[in-house]
Design goal:
DNA-binding, DNA-binding protein, DNA binding, 97 residues, alpha+beta
């Protein structure tokens, strides 16, 4: 049974480390091909071999797909205007009695 490809929102929601098959799915690569590429050292992003397991940092998958992890639902997060943050972070530290 062929698994559905992951959406960009699903990829951004993945944990920091994922298994090789999930990374392959995110990149549109099948299970067998993912293992073949990992064994040959030619998987599109960094793969860590821990015992019998292959793990892939999600950051590498995001980089290959050119997805910004800070974007939610495909829209960039809004950076507050300077006037909105004025006074929010006092420079003098904590003052007390």
């Amino acid at each position: 049974m062929k698994k559905k490809a992951l959406t960009s929102a699903e990829i951004r929601a993945l944990p920091a480390m994922i298994d090789l098959v999930t990374a392959g799915r995110a990149l549109g690569i099948g299970r067998t091909k993912s293992y073949t590429l990992a064994r040959a050292g030619t998987f599109p992003c960094r793969v860590l071999r821990i015992g019998d397991n292959y793990l892939v940092p999600t950051a590498g998958v995001l980089r290959v797909l050119e997805l910004n992890p800070a974007e939610a639902n495909g829209e960039p997060l809004r950076t507050p205007a300077r006037s909105e943050t004025a006074g929010a972070f006092p420079l003098g530290g904590v003052s007390g009695p």
